[in-house]
Design a protein that fits this description.
The chain is an alpha+beta fold and 360 residues long. The longest helix is centred in the middle third of the chain and has 15 residues. A hairpin with a 4-residue loop joins β15 and β16. Among the domains are: 166 residues, Uridine Diphospho-n-acetylenolpyruvylglucosamine Reductase, domain 3 (2-Layer Sandwich); 81 residues, Alpha-Beta Plaits. Helices cover 31% and strands 26% of the residues. It is globular. The protein starts with 5 loop residues before the first helix and ends in a 12-residue tail after the last helix. The strands form four sheets. The protein has an eight-stranded antiparallel beta sheet with strand order 13-10-12-11-15-16-14-17, sandwiched between helices. A five-stranded antiparallel beta sheet has the order 3-4-8-6-7. The protein has a two-stranded parallel ribbon with strand order 1-2.
Length: 360
């Protein structure tokens, strides 16, 4: 099914008697959801764009590339730095903006500006009974009290099918520069990232891979030059500076986990405390990319490492299997969280037909 209006989508959901697999471009699907495919790519187009107000309203099936083109024409962007994981996951297709919010997909700049959920201003969606729901204005009585934007961000289509999203956007910076720090072991390299993030110099990216640490700053040219100089004195190690497009490409590679694309093995996405990152990585082994100062770790391991990963993160965070067949995709839920999820599913999808298996 590929509806082209919100009304058609609501009718399709209301009339469904079997599970539905909600799909935008199919580039971010995780888990083991099954059912008849319900495509949202027919719901495309920019509804409202006010550059002066930094506001964008777009239908959920619109391609991310189209959104980025529209914004770039006004020297603006989605601040949360949408990752493109098609290379990593071996996927084709076109990433859609609804899929971005449904996955809460966010890049290295999250450390400065927050995630997709923090940039989202509003949503419209169709719930599991086929009712149209939106935040603000004429909100259905049975969803009063919920923050619908935060609820839908990261829900992966299991609570409702997004039809429209609105975002606050950001002006492109005048300049960008990255410190590349070498000559430090992992402990010292991660410590340098934490020091940079704890400084007053407004860091917009902090990552480490293959023995090098990276610290990014953006803004007015004079400000960037000043902050780079101060950070250079702070982080230690052997420092070089890359600017402009070279800096941009470096961060696209980190954002998209490009070093692991096309290589054999399992890829795990681990969220932990930055101070625990080195220990978690050491227990797992494999090759690591540390992002957000170490709070996010991408790890490439041999196949069948699920037990080792689970043991390493126990009590320190959680791990998601992004690529591979090593066990459950999502981390186990605490009983109180599982009860909350079950309650949300009962409220928004009482028939249990939307993206079964996509929330844990």
């Amino acid at each position: 099914m590929r509806p082209v209006t919100e009304a058609e989508l609501a009718e399709a959901v209301a009339g469904a008697s079997e599970p539905l697999l909600v799909r935008g471009g199919g580039t971010r699907v995780l888990g083991h959801a099954v059912g008849e495919v319900l495509e949202t790519s027919g719901l495309s187009g920019v509804e409202l764009y006010e550059p002066g107000a930094l506001t964008l309203v777009v239908r959920a099936g619109t391609a991310v590339a189209e959104v980025e083109r529209v914004l770039a024409a006004e020297r603006q962007r989605l601040a949360f730095e949408v990752p493109d994981l098609r290379g990593l996951l071996g996927r084709e297709g076109v990433s859609t903006i609804g899929g971005v919010l449904a996955a809460n997909a966010s890049g290295p700049r999250r450390v400065q500006v927050g995630a997709a959920r923090d940039a989202a201003l509003g949503v419209r969606f169709v719930d599991g009974l086929g009712a149209v729901v939106k935040n603000g204005g004429r909100v259905m009585k049975n969803v009063t009290g919920y923050d619908l934007v935060k609820l839908m961000a990261g829900s992966r289509g299991a609570l409702g099918v997004l039809t429209e999203v609105s975002f606050k956007v950001q002006a492109l910076p005048e300049a960008e520069a990255t410190l590349v720090i070498e000559g430090l072991d992992d402990a010292a390299g991660l410590a340098s990232l934490r020091a940079a993030l704890g400084s007053p110099f407004d860091v917009s990216g902090a990552a480490r891979h293959s023995g090098r640490s990276f610290v990014r700053v953006e803004g007015m040219a004079g400000s960037v030059a000043y902050r780079i100089g101060r950070l250079r004195d702070l982080v230690g190690g052997e420092v070089t500076v890359v600017e402009g497009e070279a800096s941009g490409q470096l961060w696209r590679d980190i954002r998209d986990v490009t070093p692991f694309a096309g290589r054999p093995g399992e890829v795990w996405r681990i969220v932990t405390l930055p101070t625990a990152a080195e220990g978690v990585s050491a227990r797992i082994g494999g090759e690591a990319i540390w992002d957000w100062g170490g709070g996010l770790i991408w790890v490439l391991t041999e196949h069948g490492q699920g037990a080792e990963v689970a043991a390493a993160v126990a009590g320190r965070g959680h791990a998601t299997l992004m690529r591979g067949e090593g066990g459950p995709v999502f981390p186990p839920e605490a009983p109180e969280v599982a009860a909350l999820v079950a309650g949300l599913k009962e409220r928004f999808d009482p028939r249990g037909i939307l993206n079964r298996g996509m929330m844990g």
